[in-house]
Write a structure and sequence with these properties.
single chain, about 525 residues, alpha+beta, 5-stranded antiparallel β-sheet, 5-stranded mixed β-sheet, 14 helices, about 55% helix
Length: about 525
C-alpha cells in the first residue's frame, strides 16, 4: 500500500512537471520515466500476489529492496542526478528495507543507496555516463557535499527506521500476545457459558435480550440457539423483571414448547455496562417439584391407606353378617314376594359394597409384586389387543410403538395398570379420538407412555388425580388411578401425568430396568 501511494505521488509529480512546462511533445526521458513508474506498478502487483499466496520470504524481500534501489537509481539518472527531485526514493527504499527485513537490512540498504548515488555522481562527473538532463554545475566541492549529505541522511534514516521497526515489532508482539490471551479468555468464557447447566440470559435497560446460553435455550425449548434480535425478555420469562428485587431467590412458572416449567431465578443488575442491563440466571426445578409432589402424595396415600385398611376391615365383618342375615330372610318359608324383592336388592348392593371394599383394600395394601423376567413389549401388546374389543375402544384410533425390552415385573399387576390407564383414555377421547402407546428405554429406565388426544384435565385436578375416591366422571369410584399409582410404586417406579388442551394427556410410567 505504501509503495502504491509513493509511486502514485511520483506519477503526479512528473505529470505536474509536464503540465507546467511550455507546450511541447513529451521527450524520450519523460516517456522512459512513465515506463519506469508503470514497471513499479507491475512489480507492486506481483508483490501483492506473492503476499496473498504466501510466497513472500526473505529472498523475495531482498529482491524487492534491490529492485527499489535500481528503480530509484534509474529515475535519479534520468532526472539530472545531482539536481534530481527523486533522490528521496533512496530514503523510501531504506525505510522499506527496515520494514521487510530488519535494522541490519536497513543499514545495508542505506550503504547500497549511498554507493549507487555516489557512483552515479562520479560517473556523470567523469562523463562515463551522460544524463539526459545534464548534470548542471557539479563542482568537486558540490560532489563531495552531495555524497556526504546523502550518506549521512541515509544512515540516520536507516538507524531511526531500524529503531522504530524494532519498537513496532516488539509492540506488535505484545499486542499479538494480548490478543491471543483475549481469544483464549473469550474461548474459555464461551465454553463455561456453554457447559454450565444453569440457564443464563442478559438484557439491556430496555429489556431486549442480548445473550442466551445453550442451557437456557434447552430449558425454554427455543427453536434457535439464540432468539432473534429485538426479542424482549418478558416474551421468554414473563414476569421476570417485575419480581420483588429484595427477594434474592424466586420461582417462576413459564409455559414452554415442552410444557409448563418451574424455574428458580436469580435476577441481578449488570454493573459497568453503562446502560443498566440485567443478568438472569435460572435452573429448571420442574423435576424437583414433581419429586417433592410425589413424596407428599406418597405420604398422604400411606396415611390414607392405613386408615382405609382399618376402616375396610371394620366394614367387612358387619357387611358379611348383614348379607348372611339377608340370605336367611329370603330362605324363610313364609317370605312374601315384596320381602324377597327387597332382600334381592339388599344382596346386590351388599355385593357391590363388598367389591368396593375389596378394591379399596387392594389399593391400601397392594400385594407385593411377584416379578419374573418377560418381554414387556409382548405384555403391553397383548393388553392393548385385549382392550380393542372393549366397547369403549370402538371408533378410537390406537397407535403403538413398542421397542423390545426384557424386564423383571409382575405381569398381572402391570396388566392391571395398563387396563386402568387405557380404559380411562378410551373414555376420555370417545369415538373419533386417538390413543398412542409407546415403549422405549431412556436414561437407564423403561419409559411406558400412554397418550390420548382428549387433553381435558384441568390443572387444578392434576395434583389430585391419584388420590383415592377422586373422580370427575359420573359413577367412577376414583380407585383406578390410585391403584395404578400404588402398583407402579410397588415396582420401584413412578407414574406421572401431564395434560393440556393443545397437546393432549399423557401418563408416563418409569420403571427401573433392573428390578
Amino acid at each position: 500500500m505504501f509503495r502504491t501511494v509513493a509511486v502514485s505521488l511520483s506519477l503526479v509529480a512528473v505529470a505536474a512537471r509536464l503540465f507546467l512546462q511550455p507546450l511541447e511533445e513529451p521527450s524520450g526521458v519523460d516517456m522512459l520515466t512513465f515506463a519506469v513508474i508503470g514497471l513499479v506498478y507491475l512489480f507492486t502487483l506481483v508483490y501483492g500476489l506473492m503476499l496473498r499466496g504466501g510466497w513472500a520470504d526473505r529472498i523475495a524481500a531482498v529482491v524487492q529492496v534491490v529492485g527499489d534501489l535500481l528503480i530509484a537509481s534509474v529515475l535519479v539518472f534520468l532526472t539530472g542526478v545531482g539536481d534530481s527531485p527523486f533522490t528521496f526514493l533512496y530514503l523510501l527504499a531504506v525505510i522499506g528495507a527496515s520494514i521487510v527485513l530488519d535494522g541490519r537490512g536497513a543499514l545495508v540498504a542505506a550503504g547500497g543507496s549511498a554507493l549507487a548515488y555516489s557512483l552515479l555522481l562520479v560517473a556523470v562527473k567523469l562523463q562515463w555516463l551522460e544524463s539526459p538532463l545534464g548534470v548542471g554545475n557539479l563542482s568537486q566541492q558540490r560532489l563531495v557535499f552531495l555524497i556526504g549529505s546523502n550518506l549521512l541522511a541515509l544512515v540516520l534514516i536507516a538507524v531511526l527506521a531500524g529503531y522504530l521497526t524494532r519498537q513496532l515489532s516488539a509492540t506488535g508482539g505484545r499486542l499479538s500476545a494480548r490478543e491471543a490471551d483475549l481469544k483464549k479468555l473469550d474461548t474459555l468464557q464461551r465454553q463455561i457459558l456453554a457447559c454450565m447447566p444453569s440457564g443464563l440470559i442478559t438484557c439491556d435497560a430496555a429489556g431486549l435480550v442480548t445473550f442466551v446460553n445453550r442451557a437456557a435455550s434447552v430449558i425454554l425449548g427455543l427453536e434457535a440457539p439464540s432468539p432473534p434480535t429485538g426479542t424482549h425478555v418478558e416474551s421468554l420469562l414473563p414476569g421476570a423483571l417485575g419480581l420483588d428485587a429484595h427477594q434474592r431467590r424466586r420461582e417462576l412458572s413459564v409455559q414452554t414448547r415442552a410444557g409448563a416449567r418451574t424455574l428458580g431465578l436469580t435476577v441481578t443488575g449488570l454493573e459497568g455496562t453503562g446502560g443498566g442491563g440485567t443478568l438472569i440466571v435460572f435452573q429448571d426445578l420442574t423435576e424437583l417439584r414433581r419429586t417433592e409432589e410425589d413424596l407428599r402424595r406418597a405420604d398422604r396415600l400411606a396415611s390414607l391407606g392405613t386408615l382405609a385398611a382399618q376402616l375396610a376391615h371394620e366394614i367387612r365383618n358387619p357387611l358379611a353378617a348383614m348379607r348372611g342375615s339377608a340370605q336367611l330372610l329370603v330362605q324363610a318359608p313364609d317370605a312374601d314376594p315384596t320381602s324377597v324383592r327387597l332382600v334381592d336388592i339388599l344382596l346386590r348392593e351388599s355385593d357391590r359394597l363388598s367389591k368396593l371394599v375389596e378394591d379399596f383394600l387392594r389399593f391400601a395394601r397392594p400385594p407385593p409384586p411377584l416379578k419374573r423376567e418377560l418381554e414387556l413389549e409382548v405384555l403391553v401388546g397383548e393388553t392393548v389387543d385385549m382392550l380393542r374389543v372393549d366397547p369403549l375402544a370402538s371408533q378410537v384410533r390406537v397407535e403403538r410403538a413398542l421397542a423390545p425390552m426384557r424386564m423383571l415385573v409382575d405381569a398381572d399387576q402391570i396388566r392391571q395398570v395398563l387396563i386402568n390407564l387405557l380404559r380411562n383414555a378410551f373414555q376420555a377421547v370417545g369415538p373419533g379420538g386417538s390413543v398412542r402407546v409407546t415403549l422405549r428405554e431412556a436414561d437407564g429406565q423403561c419409559w411406558l407412555r400412554i397418550w390420548d388426544s382428549a387433553g381435558s384435565i384441568p390443572a387444578a385436578h392434576l395434583s389430585r388425580i391419584f388420590e383415592p375416591f377422586f373422580s370427575t366422571r359420573e359413577g367412577g369410584t376414583g380407585l383406578g388411578l390410585s391403584t395404578a399409582h400404588s402398583l407402579v410404586r410397588a415396582h420401584g417406579g413412578t407414574l406421572r401425568v401431564s395434560s393440556s388442551p393443545r397437546e393432549g394427556t399423557e401418563f408416563l410410567i418409569q420403571l427401573p430396568m433392573r428390578g
